[in-house]
Write a structure and sequence with these properties.
Family: Belongs to the tetrahydrofolate dehydrogenase/cyclohydrolase family.
CATH class of one domain: Alpha Beta
Organism: Trifolium pratense
GO molecular function, one term: methylenetetrahydrofolate dehydrogenase (NADP+) activity
Shape: globular
Helix content: 25-40%
Bound molecules: NADPH dihydro-nicotinamide-adenine-dinucleotide phosphate, 5,10-Methenyltetrahydrofolate
Largest sheet: 6 strands, parallel
Keywords: Hydrolase, Multifunctional enzyme, NADP, One-carbon metabolism, Oxidoreductase, Photorespiration
Radius of gyration: 21 Å
GO biological process, one term: photorespiration
Distance between the termini: 10 Å
Number of strands: 13
């Protein structure tokens, strides 16, 4: 369902269309216009890589917000089809421990997103001094609750808790975050299939697919190796037949390695770390980073920026995700998709 793409051009035209040109070309009925960062919707992305001869070329902006909306529409249709056919409504349980503001915002956004597609959301907010045992009890209850098809424990957990114990307790059939070691292990093994793929890396790959950006045979560099983003992103890219390098805090020459990449996934948590000079001309950039930086001109007093210096990157890359509006909305869309998949699998509904 969601993997079918309206954006994918036939593979033979993909390479042609993704090659940036300084001369306008014409594809079908739409003549090519120079597009700035506020670019066209995905349905016309195929024609938006070209720049006029007189203007500097800029990267295509990969619109995660728009793609996520499209995926939510697809999910909503499937949710109602299942409800009508077998009377089952997918359910997602979210466990939030502590009072981190950013976590509370994410959980609220997830709840809103569930409502928008007709998925039931159950939420439990526990105080920061909750014991690990109490959290395990909630997980056990949701594991046994037939109305719950997905369980998400919001990370990070308070430091007195053992994250491994908690994540291990989620039944793998309900592990919609894809963080259970058995799901990650299967993701890493050839010929094995995880029940769920972690949402953020899955969203990155989905964006590449939906924009017709081929991965096979490409050099990819993932910056960051966390269990929730960098490591599974590298595994997924490898499954898609990219040749993958992973850069981390102990890498001695990150700039040089990154400059070799056709595809860069940055998941570091360092604002604007990846500069224009790190980027090979025409590389594709997926910026996962979400970093608050002071901004007195904003009503919140801060703004969000990525791990990639957007202003510099947009002049060098062929395509880039913005922050906000790039990977973030896709993470939530993939969570909904995983929850739907889980409900279908548990109920043997195709
Ligand atoms: N858009 C979305 O949906 C999501 C966004 N995020 C955002 O993505 C970013 C990364 O998140 P997450 O993976 O959880 O972060 P972690 O802090 O868990 O991991 C960061 C990784 O980056 C590496 N790193 C840190 N500093 C450097 C450096 N100077 N040079 C090279 N590598 C470095 C670390 O290396 P080492 O392993 O050596 O310590 C580590 O592997 C954050 O900004 C986060 O907010 C996260 C989840 C979802
Ligand atoms: N168990 C678990 N699973 C997660 O998937 C998980 C987690 N814990 N802990 C924290 C990180 C972070 N994360 C984000 C999800 C959506 C946006 C998102 O929607 N961002 C919007 C804007 C957000 C805003 O404006 O504040 C955007 O980038 O456009 C961001 C970050 C999921 N995470």
């Amino acid at each position: 369902m969601a993997s079918s793409s309206i954006f994918n051009p036939p593979s033979s035209t993909t390479a042609l269309l993704l090659r940036r040109t300084r001369h306008p070309i014409h594809v079908g009925p739409t003549s090519l216009r120079f597009l700035t960062s506020q670019s066209a919707p995905p349905s016309s992305h195929l024609v938006s890589f070209a720049a006029s001869a007189t203007e500097a070329s800029v990267a295509k902006v990969i619109d995660g917000k728009l793609v996520a909306k499209q995926i939510r529409d697809e999910i909503a249709a499937e949710v109602s089809r299942m409800k009508e056919a077998v009377g089952v409504i997918p359910g997602l349980a979210v466990i939030l421990v502590g009072d981190r503001k950013d976590s509370a915002t994410y959980v609220r956004n997830k709840k809103k997103a569930c409502e928008s597609v007709g998925i039931n959301s159950l939420e439990v907010n526990l105080p920061a001094d909750t014991t690990e045992e109490q959290v395990l009890n909630y997980i056990s209850g949701y594991n046994d609750d037939p109305s719950v098809h997905g369980i998400l424990v919001q990370l990070p957990l308070p430091s007195h808790m053992n994250e491994q114990n908690v994540l291990n307790a989620v039944r793998i059939e309900k592990d919609v975050d894809g963080f259970h070691p058995l799901n990650i292990g299967r993701l890493a093994m050839r010929g094995r299939e995880p029940l769920f793929v972690p949402c953020t890396p899955k969203g990155c790959i989905e964006l590449l697919h939906r924009y017709g950006i081929s991965i096979k045979g490409k050099r990819a560099v993932v910056i960051g190796r966390s269990n929730i983003v960098g490591m599974p992103a590298a595994l997924l890219l490898q499954r898609e037949d990219a040749t993958v390098s992973v850069v981390h805090s102990r890498t001695s020459n990150p700039e040089e390695i990154t400059r070799q990449a056709d595809i860069i996934i940055a998941a570091v948590g360092q604002p604007n770390m990846v500069r224009g000079s790190w980027i090979k001309p025409d590389a594709v950039i997926i910026d996962v980073g979400i970093n608050p930086v002071d901004d007195p001109s904003s009503s919140r007093g801060y703004k969000l920026v990525g791990d990639v210096c957007y202003e510099e990157a947009i002049k060098v890359a062929s395509a880039i995700t913005p922050v906000p509006g790039g990977v973030g909305p896709m993470t939530i869309a993939m969570l909904l998709q995983n929850t739907l998949t889980s409900a279908k699998r548990i109920n043997s509904f195709q």
